[in-house]
UniProtKB/TrEMBL annotation, chain A:
Pfam families found in the cross-reference section: ABC_tran
Protein name per Swiss-Prot or TrEMBL: Sulfonate ABC transporter ATP-binding protein
InterPro entries xref list: AAA+_ATPase (IPR003593), ABC_transporter-like_ATP-bd (IPR003439), ABC_transporter-like_CS (IPR017871), ABC_transporter_ATP-bind (IPR050166), P-loop_NTPase (IPR027417)
Entry-linked Gene3D superfamilies: P-loop containing nucleotide triphosphate hydrolases (3.40.50.300)
Domain ABC transporter intervals: 5-235
PROSITE patterns: ABC_TRANSPORTER_1, ABC_TRANSPORTER_2
Keywords: ATP-binding, Nucleotide-binding, Transport
UniProtKB/TrEMBL annotation, chain B:
Record GO cellular component, one term: plasma membrane
Membrane topology classification: Multi-pass membrane protein
Family classification: Belongs to the binding-protein-dependent transport system permease family.
Subcellular location: Cell membrane
UniProt keyword annotation of DNA damage present: no
Highest taxon of the lineage: Bacteria
Lineage, broadest ranks: Bacteria, Bacillati, Bacillota, Bacilli, Bacillales
Species annotation: Paenibacillus antarcticus
Gene3D superfamilies assigned: MetI-like
Name of this protein: ABC transporter permease
Amino acid sequence: MTEMLKIDKLNKTFAAPTGDVIALNNIQLQVKKGEFITIIGPSGCGKSTLLKIVAGLDTDYTGAVVLNGKPVDGPSIEKGFIFQEPRLFPWLTVEKNIAANLSLKDPTTRTRVTELIELVRLTGFEKSYPRELSGGMAQRVAIARALLRNPDVLLLDEPFGALDAFTRAHLQEVLLDIWQTNRTTMLFVTHDLDEAVFLGQRVIIMNPRPGHIRSVQPIDLPFPRKRSSSSFQELRHKVLSEFEKVEEPTIDVGAGI
Amino acid sequence: MSEQVLVKKQHERDGWLSRIPKPLHGWILPLIIVVIWELVSDIGNISATMLPSPISVVAQFARLTMNGELFEYIGISVYRAAQGFLLGSIAGLLIGLSTGLGKLVERTLDTSLQLIRTIPLLSLIPLFILWFGIGEFSKVLMIALGAFFPVYLNTFLGIRSVDLKLFEVSRIFQYTRWQLLCKMIIPAALPNILLGVRLSLGISWLVLVVAEMMGASAGVGYMIQDARGYSQTDIVFVGIIIFAVVGKFSDSGVRYLEKKWLHWRDTYKG
Ligand SMILES: Nc1ncnc2c1ncn2[C@@H]1O[C@H](COP(=O)(O)OP(=O)(O)O)[C@@H](O)[C@H]1O
Ligand SMILES: [Mg+2]
């Protein structure tokens, strides 16, 4: 068992005029290669902050974040990131968005882009502009764009949060497919309980003020999972009860399908 | 509701307009004005020095075209305006890029530029004449100064309104500085930059007229000034119309570029 990502005594404080905000307090987390981790917690508990630190977008922290044996000190191609919004470049077509700073004139990139467009089922939309896409299609472009770099670890910050239930369910399947084929390590942030239990091999439960890991729930269910199965419901309840111990029920409970 | 009904409705709404080809719709009002103008100058008791009739303006136009004077003047004017415009807008673009990208440049340069900007350009004409004379250099420089600010301000604004979220994406993909500039900042700022270019074309044209009327021995502005001296008001009109037409063409040029480069924009198109 190889630990790919090690987070040790991670602390992050934001300086604010109204006083410092402790966004992350003593985070300890180890992630194995190829593991699917979901992180759930109410808004403001530091999920995005944690992901940005792992991505290397924010290097102002104390503690250790080590990926593949190297401390994280900035973005790198081994770390892919998918944001809540697709964040496509509006002036580029779908295929050019996926290629981004890589050239489509390079035959290997060209072939990979075509494959990825097929994978996220956007064949026929290669030359479309982002304004012509629905939210779900745009998010699929963002997924393809992240996958083109063959990242070892994919960081996803509530990627399906803004989508309707059907599109979300579909993209969850797409993501599981990708994970099973490529064995990409996944760090998936969500505020949707069903999504966390449906996708994750371990669910990290976070709480705010200050942001910390409350508990870790292993989900020992084989894939593909069935939301209606009693074992699924049982685990879902277990995670939910972790939140009911805190006063504010800020978790999105009813968003499952 | 069938398509036919919808088509009919469209017809009813446009009425007589639908019988005229669409590209000509914009010319209906100017045409009406010319007709009224002709009638007024024919019927009324207005002297040709005050208001020459459109027909005499057209006649002058034909005469000036035949003897080659007109195109020579247009050529000279356009050349002047183009020189000043290019000088000013390229400087505006480059300095706008550097103040937009660098905090240090912004801090050291922007205040001075904002100060200069508040000076009404035309009040500087006496100084320009004093320092640089009334030659070509002086004129081009004045046009360049006028053309500089719209491009400078809008380039700066465009860069500073680049979405931070897209910027984060470029960091994830480790864009090089060059890629950041060419594939991210400039495309994102392009709508603003082109707006600046359009405004600056208009100003170049305006300053050109003033500069040529202040003192020149050729050019459309000179032609107007000269004709006024001899009370040849019809030539004055020819000059004014030339300015309007060339101005319109250059503006259409930028609009064409906007259509071509900014078609990705998702905005209300009427
Ligand atoms: N740039 C920032 N400046 C100051 N405070 C911030 C900043 N970003 C996040 N925070 C604070 O850090 C805490 C965690 O934020 P975030 O990681 O975005 O939470 P989540 O993604 O779980 O909703 C919040 O209290 C938030 O107000
Ligand atoms: Mg967040």
